[in-house]
Amino acid sequence: MSTTAAALGTFSVRPLDPIADAELLHRWVTDPKAAFWMMQDAKLEDVEREYMGIAAHEHHDAFIGLHDGEPAFLMERYDPRHVELVGLYEPEPGDVGMHFLVAPTDTPVHGFTRAVITAVMRELFADPATRRVVVEPDVGNKAVHALNEAVGFVPEREIQKPEKAALLSFCTREQFEAAVGDAEVPR
Predict the structure, then answer these.
(1) Three-state SS for 173?
(2) What percent of the chain has pLDDT over 70?
(3) Taking phi first (over 0 means left), then psi (-120 to 50 degrees means alpha), and beta for anything else, what does residue 87 get?
């Protein structure tokens, strides 16, 4: 699926190849702006191993996001009944977990990251089985909290994960539609 953001171009995703995309991902996840990914000191082999594990996992997927056909962001989708949030909240049918990371750039474009998260949410809601998207960003990541709110996420509570204190937040299809004002949200 691809979506177009007014004046910003076309966004789409493709499956991530853990070997072919490892160098690209390594640059992204070790960049200082990606500190909340907790991979600052990762070696190339660490990134390959991490994404090979995701590729082999039955309940976790990773995608390279494309902007006008060029790699521009990382998107992960997971089943919170089996990954990330096991035992930390009571999952509902249709819950889908999500992570995203915008590639670092020296020439930021106003509105680009918001366009990316909107495209990610459209991609997730393109699956009719998805009823609610779940995220668990670091409590200190104020920038992503604002982005999440902009697309309809509502924080529920702080939770303690093994690696961080996280803000458990949810966004239903209806909340997303209301936030982005778009009648073209997939049903």
Answers:
(1) helix
(2) 94
(3) left
